[in-house]
Amino acid sequence: MPNSSTLASKHSICQFSGFRCCPVQPNLRHPHYFAQNYGLPQVDAQLKLLFVGRLTPDKGWGFTCKALEVFFQTTPADQIALLIAGDGSMRDEIAQALQPLTPHVHFLGRVAPQQVPALYANSDIHVTTSEKEARGLTVLEAFASAIPVLAPRAGGLMENINDGWNGFLYEPQSIPDFVDKLQQLHQSPQQRQQMGQRGKEQMEDYSWEKAVQNLVSLWQAEIASLSLGPE
User: Fold this and answer.
1) Dist. CA 182–CA 80, nearest whole Å
2) For 109-136, what is the mean pLDDT?
3) What's the pLDDT at 4?
4) Burial classification of residue 222, based on how many CB atoms lie within 10 Å of its CB (0-12 exposed, 13-18 middle, 19 or more buried)
5) CA 2 from chain center: how many Å?
6) Structural domains present in the chain
């Protein structure tokens, strides 16, 4: 649980910021989502690790491939599905690097924006290894869909992830720390659910309605202080 000063600091940053692109999502989870939409019935029963974004070097794919190989050495492969949504110059290179993990890797290609919320909602963990994100939009999208996030302790990602509360932060380039945090999420469905719910509740601060409400409250407090001042 983050301390009160950390939460207060983060709230002060976001309370006047509205993100219409990341509204809290309704319940879009469906028990046969991947069978019906991607022809992957086996995935619906597996733990789904979702990667969303460009398949380019700046997104940390070199580290990801090495770390996942180690993760699978300590985890029954038939329990896990790796879902990769996006495209880019490294697509073939990533596929070759992850080939030993076949048939548990699924390249979904580019996903239409209107389909992205359902994809998040029907996954279990959002994983990102990019260390150069300024804001981390995919993190906010994951929180809006009530799933936890695993990300490096770097860049703008740290602004929204409270380590151990709504997700996990691992030390950049540390495969042991990455694997340890991912194992914790894999082994504890209750922890994943709690983290996801906390992330979803946190996203309420990012709606335009909340931003306007905070601004109006500020104005009302300022007007009240003026009316109580000396005549």
Assistant:
1) 12
2) 92
3) 37
4) exposed
5) 18
6) 28-225 (3.40.50.2000)
